[in-house]
């Protein structure tokens, strides 16, 4: 049996790559090796490799298992539950349409549930995005889709927008926790959400990351500082001797789980600001401090 290539090598990313880097690499590779665009004899096999690699690495649980046990964790009979596409429920039957192989499932299971196809809702949508037409796998006509851009805070808190589509007025209710690519389904069309970036908060799933500057005197002596959160300002205690880049976790101060309970966390990275200019008196104080430190 040939040795499988490393999933990170297949996507061309380092093993510490984040969600967005994985998604970007997947889209690039899937487009490069898609058999309808790439006529090389090995394109179809590489396309399958790319999808398999992304399916595992985009799932935090599967990625952790892969990092620990490698491909053995997903081989049948290897002592682990199912392969990389296991766990869907129901019986799968492989079919072929043109150059593509695909599997449909019976038993009520959704074969693509929990799989992030690089920002697409399913692999058929990849086909439509790349080639501008309906996938040969679909039987029904593609649903009309419209984009709706909202502010970052609206995505966290939820919002309601009134839009006009095909001459008719519609009220779009965006649930709290919506993110880029979140799709809201109506009877006759879908709405895809596009979230504007925020200058203060960086989102990672349901968690938020904030870079917060503090003066070096506060980092050295300790004290308090006000931290921005999506719920307003929060007073945070700074310990004496806090080092630059220290991370503070604020539980349940992140983004609400979409259609679920609870919230993510907020992580505050403390950036220690060093003054560029000092008065003579300040320099003397620091020099005295340095001398005292050197003397023990």
From TrEMBL:
InterPro entries: DnaJ_C, DnaJ_domain, DnaJ_domain_CS, HSP40/DnaJ_pept-bd, J_dom_sf. Residues 6-70 form the J domain. CDD domains: DnaJ, DnaJ_C. One of its GO terms (biological process) is protein refolding. Keywords: Chaperone, Metal-binding, Repeat, Zinc, Zinc-finger. GO terms for molecular function: unfolded protein binding; zinc ion binding. SUPFAM superfamilies: Chaperone J-domain, HSP40/DnaJ peptide-binding domain. The keyword Metal-binding applies. GO terms for cellular component: cytoplasm. It holds the Pfam family DnaJ_C. PANTHER family: DNAJ HOMOLOG 1, MITOCHONDRIAL-RELATED. This is J domain-containing protein.
């Amino acid at each position: 049996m040939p040795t499988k290539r490393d999933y990170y090598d297949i996507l061309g990313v380092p093993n510490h790559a984040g969600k967005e880097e994985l998604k970007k690499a997947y889209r690039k590779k899937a487009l490069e090796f898609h058999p309808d665009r790439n006529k090389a004899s090995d394109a179809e096999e590489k396309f399958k490799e790319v999808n398999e690699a992304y399916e595992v690495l985009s799932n935090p649980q599967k990625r952790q298992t892969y990092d620990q046990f490698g491909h053995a964790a997903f081989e049948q009979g290897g002592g682990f539950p199912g392969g990389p596409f296991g766990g869907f429920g129901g019986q799968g039957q492989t079919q072929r349409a043109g150059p593509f192989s695909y599997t449909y499932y019976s038993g009520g299971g959704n074969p693509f549930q929990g799989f992030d196809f690089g920002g697409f809702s399913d692999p058929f949508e990849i086909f439509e995005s790349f080639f501008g037409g309906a996938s040969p796998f679909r039987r029904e006509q593609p649903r009309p889709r419209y984009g709706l851009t909202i502010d970052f805070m609206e995505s966290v808190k939820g919002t309601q927008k009134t839009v006009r589509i095909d001459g008719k007025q519609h009220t779009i209710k965006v649930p709290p926790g919506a993110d880029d690519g979140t799709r809201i389904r109506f009877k006759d069309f879908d709405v895809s959400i596009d979230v504007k970036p925020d200058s203060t908060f960086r989102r990672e799933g349901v968690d938020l990351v904030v870079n917060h500057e503090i003066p070096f005197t506060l980092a050295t002596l300790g004290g308090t500082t006000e931290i921005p959160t999506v719920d307003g300002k929060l007073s945070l205690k700074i310990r004496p001797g806090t080092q630059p880049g220290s991370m503070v976790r604020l539980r349940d101060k992140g983004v609400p789980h979409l259609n679920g309970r609870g919230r993510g966390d907020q992580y505050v990275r403390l950036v220690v600001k060093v003054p560029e200019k000092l008065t003579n008196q300040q320099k003397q104080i620091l020099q005295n401090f340095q001398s005292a430190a050197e003397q023990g």
